[in-house]
Amino acid sequence: VSALPAEIIRKKRDGDRLTPAELKSFIAAYLDGGVADYQMSAFLMAVYFRGMDEEETAAFTDVMLNSGSVVDLSAVPGIKVDKHSTGGVGDKVSLILAPIVAACGVPVPMISGRGLGHTGGTLDKLESITGFRTNLSLKEYKEVLAATGCVMIGQTAEIAPADKKMYALRDVTGTVESIPLIAGSIMSKKLAEGIDALVLDVKTGRGAFMASRERSRELAQTLIRVGKRFGKTTTALITDMSQPLGHAVGNWVEVAESFDCLRGKEVPDLMEVTYALSALMLRSGGKAVTIAEGINRSKDAVQSGRALAKFREVVGRQGGNVEFIDHPHTYPVCKHIIHVKSPANGFVGECDALAIGFASILIGAGRATTDDAIDPKAGIMLLKKCGDRVAKDETLATILTDRAETAADAQERVARAYTIAPDAPKPVNLIHEMIDEHGVHEW
Amino acid sequence: VSALPAEIIRKKRDGDRLTPAELKSFIAAYLDGGVADYQMSAFLMAVYFRGMDEEETAAFTDVMLNSGSVVDLSAVPGIKVDKHSTGGVGDKVSLILAPIVAACGVPVPMISGRGLGHTGGTLDKLESITGFRTNLSLKEYKEVLAATGCVMIGQTAEIAPADKKMYALRDVTGTVESIPLIAGSIMSKKLAEGIDALVLDVKTGRGAFMASRERSRELAQTLIRVGKRFGKTTTALITDMSQPLGHAVGNWVEVAESFDCLRGKEVPDLMEVTYALSALMLRSGGKAVTIAEGINRSKDAVQSGRALAKFREVVGRQGGNVEFIDHPHTYPVCKHIIHVKSPANGFVGECDALAIGFASILIGAGRATTDDAIDPKAGIMLLKKCGDRVAKDETLATILTDRAETAADAQERVARAYTIAPDAPKPVNLIHEMIDEHGVHEW
Fold this sequence. Notes:
The structure is a homodimer. Chain A is an alpha+beta fold. Helices cover 45% and strands 16% of the residues of chain A.
């Protein structure tokens, strides 16, 4: 006798464990219409409050994973490793990291998402490169990976359709911020793309979806446990997202900053996180024994120009205009350039990632609703970051936009995102800790 | 700027208070399609976990009340009083109570519901009287009340349509058992029917929806506070529903037991609850000063035959066949009569109302799904109740059904509902306490 949908919902609501069979039949029924959207949303809210234990989270992930295709990348030699970030502002790490890791000989099959809320999305950034195709078929996805050792696409209709349907529902029913639901959503997609190992960048701080360290660690540990159950080595860094990463926030401006970094520009916070993640990926991919070795190899890939060449190769294979990589200043520019000035002499105490993220939506660099179009050239350049000394009336940030009507609002938001203190703030730890299946490690 | 549906859901999910304006716009949008079923069900689940405070519950009730018509009974002289029960097994109190109270001069406008889960419904019981119309228009409703002082109908399309839509959703999304949602649902319907005062029978024990005393009291207090805010004197009794009330469980069999009681038959537990509620209604309706006086007047209405005559009059006005009142034994009988025997000498220790309720569904006296038809003549006669002495093989209960295929299962369930103990059990308190706006009182 299979349980009625309302019985499954009540069971979860009352804090009881659901069996893998119950989760499977409930979600299968959701996909074929036997469980209505209104029942799934009540279920998701019950999960929000009651959570899921390890067995349930794994079963939930398994059902979502097997709702679609699981890509077989065994024909591509090497240990395939991907990175996933829980989302931040100015987080263009994937664009720099993937070519570095691929240039070091570890294949990187990467399926990315779009901007969500105040955070940017790798897919939107890639699409700011004229002609770049993120909607490859799974066949093309395999071909590009085999040819270049790196591929970057969006979620296809074949990958975890249950997650796709459920994610849209979660977004409009206030059920996004649940660790087992986030874990099931991330891991089902990552497991479907054919990887052997996964490195996670779990953000914490005001600009992250999980603001507290405890919740970020809990999410990381859940993801690692699920990964382990599916035989995929999963390692996580907990990194700071209280201020944006690097100087550029937007789409094209972030791609351009990524080129700069691949050309060897030292953007300290951005490259510290990038090299740390890269080292973990090289270690998982068997191309470095220690983290120090992984960092050295990664730096060498940049300094030798191999990483930039790899990025150029991937962009070319996926239809992007490589002219913009070689000559970024030929890219179209915005009509309005607005400077945000420092109100005082002193030091930048804070540069609030959440506020900058919302300002970037206003100027066209992000979406207010899922149907909005993005202006790829709009962005915010943060000339000053935490700890920088500033003089009164010195420019803190520059806003690039075509939208005259939102400029004043954005300018005020950016100004308020900054606090100027008389003394230099205590430096914050950028990488809080490393977590793997053996436990939590100092970085 | 009005909030997005997902923002309202998240606010409730995070434990914040919603303003009356937010609740109003959310529910209004639900009725006109701006809030989808899947958003309402996520909201209802969030309310299940987070509750609502007094202001929110009142605002919620008000929005549901004003989603439809509010009947104006000012043309009918007297203080109009209704009773509401939270639902039980064998609970035919309304059928006996309404004629008694009306016979004592207090008008009783009663809108009842159908059976829900394992509990019976007054509407289903009334409809077992051949020809009885429960679907009167609001115009007829007023006319019958004005002419007889009593009317008994079901919820019309004009009464609290928001509740009707939401109730159907709650039933299939595991969001029924929430005190503010129950309070809003009950009170919006009761306030819409045009009453001046309300008496509540809040059930507690295994056969009740609220099994614990604390939760039953909390529900009663919530209902009373909402009633007070809307200017309606509301009084509650907390009564035991660990065993069914009276001897008959079903539809016609309960109507027949009600006739018997109106003819003066002493069914102790049933009449103790009926007279207690009746006394409170007479006091609220200005026809008794003390509870003792109310009980005496009620007993006199039965002993004089006025209550039975009133019931006969109302049945006649609403199209029912009064022949069955005068000659109940002419009603059709079931094909199968199955006896459940005592396995031992001793005393009845328990007669589980929940188990009897589920058995009554099996034999056709209730519904497994909302589309099921009810067999009005099916029922269970409990010959022995808690505390009764029984001999081995003496009949404990008799099952009346046309469904041969479910008889064995029902027989086993009824047998298991009984426990036979060697010693007489401690008598249970039938009426636990009385609650009004001044506090909790011993009965």
